[in-house]
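#struct-pred

JT: dropping the chains for the assembly here, can someone run the whole complex?
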Amino acid sequence: MSEGPAAAPPLLEVEDLRVWFPAGRGPAVKRRRFIKAVDGVSFTVHRGETLGLVGESGCGKTTTARAVLKLLDPTEGRILFDGVDLSAIPRRELRRMRRRMQPIFQDPFASLNPKRTVEAVVAEPLVIHRQGSAAERRARVSELLATVGLPPDAATRYPHAFSGGQRQRIAIARAMALRPDLIVADEPVSALDVSIRAQILNLLGDLQEEFGLTYVIIAHDLALVRQVTDRVAVMYLGGIVELRPTEELYRRPRHPYTVALLSSAPIPDTAAEQARRRIVLEGDVPSPADPPSGCRFHTRCWLRQKLGNPEVCATDPPPLTPIGESGTAGAAACHFPHEVAGSSELQETLQALTGASGGAKGCREVPVEEPEISD
Amino acid sequence: MKSPAADPAGAADTSGAPAAPLLSVRDLSVTFHAHAEVRAVNGISYDLGAGEHVGLVGESGSGKSAGALALVRLVPDYAEIEGQVMLDGVDLARLTERELRDVRGRRVGIVYQDPFSSLNPVLTIEKQLTEVVRRHSRVRAGKARAEAARLLESVGVPNAAERISDYPHQYSGGMRQRAVIAMAVSPRPALLIADEPTTALDVTVQAQILELLQDLTSEHGTTMLLITHDLAVVAGITRRVMVMYAGRIVEASSTEDVFTRPAHPYTVALHRSLPRIDERRERLMTIEGQPPDPSRPIAGCPFAPRCSARIDRCTMEDPPLMTVPTARRAAAEGWDRRMIREQDGGALFPGPAAPQLTACWNPPPPAEGSPDE
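RK: done, full complex below.
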């Protein structure tokens, strides 16, 4: 998972990324105001790894993904792809780099041109990047269609003839056309029917194994993220609050916001659902035009209230700090990770998640370990 | 008006069933006469007891929304509704449009997925809430405004007294849905239809809205039909669940049964194909293929082409909803699919001892491993 590829240089490095959108002018002072959609985000993705970006709407996960793909220019910060700073290279070179990173979008009804045949849609990246002759491209398309599990005769048909799941397969075939290293998938199954989602998730897994792909998957569904990722970055209001190996995050979360998210997610288990008590976050997410000082989350933090509103949360932004000594357990941005670990709220949340057991589920994994509370 | 006793299905007097259900649906079908004839809902029958919370689960196109909204004829003009819908002894299918308008809102409240679509963007929340209050009870404007403020506070909008003069766009998604819920519960409807009420919301807000719906309906003894595509959503707040597929109810059981011993292969497959927040699986089970085209007639069971438990009979004969023996009985006598038997009139009965029903000729054996209580 995370240790193996750590020796090789990461495929993607994002350093202190900021994406601010101008938001008109302030009312009193004639000063430009900005929506700080992404405000100081750093992470790396190793080859063959799947990183999940999770968070609620407005947290900046999609903007981060768009900046990674250079679909928009960062206000500040660097994005290194295979060691190359994407904002420091000439256009032509950027074009070449772009072949190696491809997007998959949420809605396959919107992302495929209805007037073009499936063959034209899938071949389009090859045409744009002038790859092969027409005959070679045709051969490549039929190979791709087979790879994603579509029949050969799909090539001559139009997108409207296909269901949502099949359209997403077409979109995946297009993304694979240039043999990319990195695929950035923004909510790849949330527009699909429930019974179709597993097909697409399994396909993405198979393609990763076969072609050694690296994924950044953006999703709001915490169950899906647990299933398909190796590491997870939890975002809140433009920043990463916790970045952990996936199982660490779900078994030993160390940020109060992550705990609140896990506590809110519905569990498909009647006993667990009826027994659990949820953490209710007060109020709404603050405006990214005027984020709170100190820790972004402090205005809604249940732990801060419990600790008697310590001043430090409102004054000092907590950096992402490694958890434990091994350095393999990831990092969280909270001034009080030990208090998170020792809280009854965490215990209850984990209990609901692990106490769930039903006849309809498969074999279960090792039970959760007691978190270590050092003090 | 018709009395429940005249109900041709005669379902209400089956022994063991408690008092007459609040809502009794018989053979409800909805057909859209568009380019092609699309049969979205195909003869469904069920009962809802007073104060019950029941989940209606299905994928898009399964007919769950059309079936529920057809109860109060909230379907486009080109849709044809057949069947009987008895609400408290009144057959809604026979009411005139004018009479029905009074039932909507006053007797049957509806909360939609997208709160924006239920709110007028150019009127303040106060104006809209007051309008609802005055429509359903003849009070003077001043009193109605006070009631509107109380309602908004009761659904947990912070600073309600102040925020009531805002416009919908000034509210967050969760607050808008709270305002819509305030409008829906204001006339104290007997039945609340919540159609994907949390699908457009973030996960932390979703939990709060579900809790609010749960609290408000329990407080007033309101019956709730909760429509969702997400099985996990119904786990905590409903007591019974009906699973729809291709316009039919394919399984109807207590919520616990649906989760711990599902009796229809589709329900089983859904469970195994869903990622779970509480564990990572080796690989998700897939349900191959896709739901059938509703504009084409189906011979046999609509799930048969995708079903791993398919037997010959499945492709020839459409299975009705049948009773599954209890896990204990099945364990004692040895599970045999001949133990399933047809329901009288195919109806579902409210009450704690709801039987487990499945529309399957070859259902999975109940309670694998886990003994019945």
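JT: nice. The radius of gyration of chain B is 21 Å. The first helix of chain B runs from residue 64 to 69.
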